[in-house]
TrEMBL record, chain A:
Keywords recorded for this protein, A-Z: ATP-binding, Cell membrane, Membrane, Nucleotide-binding, Translocase, Transport
Known role: Part of the ABC transporter complex PotABCD involved in spermidine/putrescine import. Responsible for energy coupling to the transport system.
Organism the protein comes from: Mesorhizobium ventifaucium
EC number(s) from the headed UniProt entry: 7.6.2.11
Subunit structure: The complex is composed of two ATP-binding proteins (PotA), two transmembrane proteins (PotB and PotC) and a solute-binding protein (PotD).
Domain ABC transporter residue range list: 4-234
Protein name: Spermidine/putrescine import ATP-binding protein PotA
Molecular function terms from GO: ATP binding
Catalytic activities: ATP + H2O + polyamine-[polyamine-binding protein]Side 1 = ADP + phosphate + polyamineSide 2 + [polyamine-binding protein]Side 1
Gene: potA
The keyword tRNA-binding appears for this protein: no
TrEMBL record, chain B:
Span of domain ABC transmembrane type-1: 64-252
InterPro entries registered for this protein in UniProt: Bact_Polyamine_Transport (IPR051789), MetI-like (IPR000515), MetI-like_sf (IPR035906)
Localization terms from the record: Cell membrane
UniProt-recorded name of the protein: Spermidine Putrescine ABC transporter permease component potC (TC_3.A.1.11.1)
Topology class, membrane: Multi-pass membrane protein
């Protein structure tokens, strides 16, 4: 087991910059998500760590050893591919045995290691099957068993759950997490699914246009995004733009918004405030509340019911503010109703203009 | 109900007519190889005389062995070279690759008569001349594009992640090729090999140009024999070859399931 250090990594393909000076430290035993839209460079970064492609500049170290020029077959990594890439001409057991067999391990060792890996992913009895006889979830488990049976230093997952349906995906998230804890392997997985990133990982790195936008624990990124992009890509956020007052902003119409979190900025510059929809309280009354709270008035333009919660789209001077409320079955606001929105400064993140 | 039955009946008739069209001449030839009359005269009288005299016809027998040898050797050479070329074209990007690929296919369309003439002139120019070796070289050259086309088509269905997965598990280039890529393209390699065998074993035009009186192949020898005067021995040797090659084809089809497994 080993940590992975990526320092100042850059890679271009022709005129396209896929990775631009990316540095991340993946601690030993951690579970990391690389999150970003398609074309953000997350897969390129994973392939660089795997060794399928070499960087133009920068360093990659696995367990302290520089590997940026070491080809993939010598890096001792385990990788799970998006479509699993199981060998169709081999049985499940032979698929899992492949990595041990090409290393020339003894037959008996291979057999017991393969069985152990298959037991770990709960496929102990399916060794004789062919990949095409398995369900999507089972193939996923075989791919995982094959990747970890060689005891790699780091486990790399490329959108591993992308091809599964929703219910199975949730099961596999739990399963993957369990297996990762059990063997304690440093795991880096690429996803464009923010929910997956939030629920599974210890730390998240958000990428955009080949750059690392923000990196940290899920709660930290969610509660204190450093850019409008991070705020809106990980979870939903309302962005209010205006002129900074140092501890908040003043909207163009003069309304002051106080921010209790985020950057400290010099007054006068343009900046924005991010507020999560579930942090805003929505009501029809105007008085009796925390005098420090931020307050805006608006009109409900639309309500979307989603079972356990509802999202109100509130129109204020042409800007739509989303408010999500738990469905308590008590109060329903009609479309067109005038409402008051309140939220605390602590729920407001000040973000410098990018 | 009635119409479906008529349609079904028409379909069956069609298949039988098609098979008759394909096999009738061959069956008649096979029957005549057992007929006493050398001039296709009826009534049919059973004999194995022609097979016995074929056994005495050294020229025809040596030409048959030449054909078989050349077909097998040229099949092996062109299948190995062609498959390797297909893999290289699949894996690597290099300057002029598109141009090279485009150049591989016109030889299939160039009439064999012209290729044969060109080879004859070329082999004379470089000192190879005519004979079995020249025929072998010619057959390899003729078969190569077929093998490359068939194997490349199979490679199009290969998922490149499979090679990446194998490499990530520590396999070197040779292990990746022999354990992952080759098993997948094997049906294509076998099909390419069959093409190569057929191109060589059926080959008349190019062999005719490159053969010498002592060093010749079966099709050329049969042609020469017919020109001198038809003998039923030719029916006999043809029948043997048909039986053997059909048995080979059926065996291959049975073991390799054309198109391959998913």
């Amino acid at each position: 087991m080993a940590g992975v250090q990526v320092a100042n990594l850059s890679r271009s393909f022709g005129a396209h910059t896929a990775l631009d000076d990316v540095s991340i430290d993946f601690a030993d035993g951690g579970f990391y998500a690389l999150l970003g839209p398609s074309g953000s460079g997350k897969t390129t970064l994973l392939r660089q760590i795997a060794g399928f492609d070499f960087p133009d500049s920068g360093r990659i170290a696995i367990g302290g050893e520089s590997v940026e020029r070491v080809p993939v077959e010598k890096r001792r990594i385990g990788m799970v591919f998006q479509n699993y890439a199981l060998f169709p001409n081999m049985s499940v057991a032979d698929n899992v045995a492949f990595g041990l067999s090409v290393r020339g391990e003894a037959k008996a060792t291979i057999q017991s290691e393969v069985q152990r890996a298959l037991d770990l992913v709960q496929l102990g009895k399916l060794g004789a099957r062919r990949p095409h006889q398995l369900s999507g979830g089972q193939r996923q488990r075989v791919a995982l068993a094959r990747a970890i049976v060689t005891k790699p230093r780091v486990l790399l997952l490329d959108e591993p759950l992308g091809a599964l349906d929703k219910a199975l995906r949730v099961d596999m998230q739990i399963e993957l997490k369990r297996i990762q804890r059990e063997i304690g392997i440093t795991t880096i997985f690429v996803t464009h699914d923010q929910e997956e990133a939030l629920t599974m990982s210890d730390r998240i790195g958000i990428l955009r246009d080949g750059r690392l936008v923000q990196e940290g624990p899920p709660e930290e990124i969610y509660d204190r995004p450093k850019s409008e992009f991070a705020a809106t890509f990980l979870g939903d956020a309302n962005i209010l733009r205006g002129e900074t007052t140092g501890t908040g902003i003043r909207l163009p119409d003069g309304t002051a918004i106080a921010a209790g979190a985020g950057a400290t900025l010099a007054g006068g510059a343009t900046a924005s405030c991010a507020v999560r929809p579930e942090r805003i309280r929505i009501g029809t009354d105007s008085g009796t509340s925390d005098p420090n709270a931020n307050m805006l008035r608006g009109q409900v333009s639309k309500r979307i019911f989603a079972g356990n919660n509802s999202t109100y789209f509130v129109d204020r001077n042409g800007q739509t503010i989303k408010v999500t409320v738990q469905n308590t079955g008590v109060e329903k606001l009609a479309e067109g109703q005038k409402v008051v929105l309140r939220w605390s400064p602590e729920s407001t993140v000040l973000i410098a203009a990018s | 109900m009635a119409t479906t039955r008529i349609l079904e009946w028409c379909g069956r008739l069609y298949i039988w007519l098609l098979l008759a069209f394909l096999y009738l001449p061959v069956i008649i030839m096979a029957l005549m190889s057992f007929n006493v009359s050398p001039f296709y005269q009826l009534p049919f009288e059973w004999t194995t005389e022609w097979y016995a005299s074929l056994w005495q016809n050294d020229q025809l027998i040596s030409a048959t062995w030449n054909s078989i040898e050349i077909a097998i050797i040229s099949t092996i050479i062109s299948t190995v070279l062609g498959s390797a070329a297909s893999l290289a074209l699949y894996r690597y990007e290099f300057r002029g690759k598109k141009f090279l690929q485009a150049l591989l296919f016109p030889p299939i369309a160039i009439p064999w008569l012209i290729t044969g003439t060109a080879m004859l002139i070329f082999f004379f120019g470089v000192g190879i001349g005519r004979g079995l070796f020249a025929i072998l070289l010619g057959h390899v050259a003729l078969a190569l594009p077929y093998v490359i086309v068939v194997v490349s088509a199979r490679l199009q269905t290969f998922a490149p992640e499979l090679e990446e997965a194998a490499r990530s598990l520590g396999a070197n280039q040779w292990q990746v090729t022999s354990r992952v890529t080759l098993p997948w393209i094997m049906p294509g390699v076998i099909a390419g090999g069959l093409f190569a065998f057929a191109v060589s074993f059926d080959q008349f035009v190019v062999s005719y140009f490159l053969s010498t009186p002592g060093q010749t192949t079966l099709p050329v020898e049969i042609y020469a024999a017919i020109r001198k005067g038809f003998t039923p021995e030719i029916n006999a040797v043809s029948t043997i070859i048909i039986v053997v090659s059909m048995a080979l084809m059926l065996l291959t089809a049975r073991f390799f399931k054309f198109g391959g497994e998913k």
